[in-house]
Amino acid sequence: MERFLGALSTEIDLVAALPWAGSPGIATIFVGGGTPSLATGEQMAALLERLRQRFRVDPDAEITVECNPESVSHERLLDYRDAGVNRISLGVQSLDDQVLSRLNRLHSARGAQLAFEAARTAGFDNVSADLIYGLPGLDGRTWERTVQNVLAWEPDHLSAYALTLDEGSLWHAAGVTDLPREEEVTGQYWTLARLAADAGFEHYEISNYARPARRSVHNQIYWRAEEYLGLGPGAAGFLGDARYVNVKPVERYRALVENGHAPIGSHEILTARQRQAEQLILGLRVAEGIPDAWLDERVRLVPGRLPALLAAWRDRGLLVEHGGRARLTEAGFLLSDALFVELL
Fold first, then answer.
1. Which of 16, 142, 169, 259 maximizes the CB count within 10 A of its CB?
2. Which helix (H) or strand (E) holds 20?
């Protein structure tokens, strides 16, 4: 842990030494990936202080730490709050112990609830819970009970993602059985949307729900196609017209930064056409949608079947236009990937 955090501090110093680094204000800090909540309160405080010393962090910046339920305690969360953390994202994933075991999660349903309660008693008034649907062995009744129970905790924000078998993952490589059928996954999506709406949550992005004024400030930077700096092994960043990803193996990452090198593993320079497509897709992920003119411009640049497809989406009530803006409906959110492929 100390070697890893030392390398991370070195990367912070390397980036902070760049000519532009002192200019932009930092509106959000998101400590995520892996299990950040393994860090002690002292280690988290040192990391955040390093960032404040090297960058111009806004005084009211949203500072989130992703926490796995089994790795947090009331005392550790108190220390995080004292360090300046003001938002907790809790990786609940499921409240069924059999499903959690299948996911190789180390916490139980009871442990997840206790972790949430610990965040509240530590003084956090902005707590998000992450869930996954479409999991193997997850039936509609179990999913509904999970959502109801999590909502009963009264979180401020809820993220829910359909299971995807990413290339390189264990389940993708080895295969997984007992996956629910597509119509069952669709039913789980609609169950979540209905229960969240009934509880007063705004479905403000395809996979995210929030109480009033509790949207994730950090994630909205991604959806607005704005710039963000990625630090740490495997971290992704977007600066100017360059998108990059740091190397993932920790030892390789550490060796690079300790020798004064940027630990970038890959990057690409986006063309103007790619930037436009990303703005369209990311903008359509959120409830406000995008200016009509953006779609019109895309149709002009990429005609083909796109005009007929957009017309069909309007006719089916998947895409609506009002007040100079185009946005996806709840049903459009569910089918959005089919449209995004065409917009690219």
1. 142
2. none
**Roughly what angle, to the nearest 10 degrees, separates helices 250-258 and 2-16?**
50
Measure CA 51 to chain center: 21
- Nearest CA to 163 among 174, 178, 147, 179? 179
AA identity, residue 125:
D
Element (H, E) at 243: strand 242-246
Which residues are CB-neighbours of 16 under 8 A, at least 6 positions away?
22, 54, 55
Q: What is the fold of 25-223?
A: TIM Barrel (3.20.20)
> Rounded to whole angstroms, how far apart are CA atoms 9 and 7?
5
What is the rounded distance in angstroms from the CA atom of residue 317 to the CA atom of residue 294?
Answer: 19
Which CATH code, of 2.60.120, 3.30.70, 1.10.10, 2.40.30, is assigned to 272-343? 1.10.10
Count CB atoms within 10 A of the CB of residue 8: 19
Helix (H, G, I), strand (E, B) or coil at 300: helix
Rg, Å, the chain Cα set: 21
What is each CA distance from 163 to 78, 93, 186, in whole angstroms?
33, 10, 12
At 131-152, the pLDDT tens digits run 999 988 889 999 999 999 999 9
* Alpha-helical segments (H) within the chain: 2-16, 41-54, 74-83, 97-102, 109-121, 140-152, 170-174, 182-198, 217-223, 250-258, 272-284, 292-301, 306-315, 330-334, 336-343
Give the pair of three-digit tokens for residue 148: 């109801």
Q: Where are the domains of the chain?
A: 25-223, 236-269, 272-343
Q: Is the pTM of this model over 0.85?
A: yes
Q: What's the CA gap between 266 and 246, in Å, rounded? A: 7
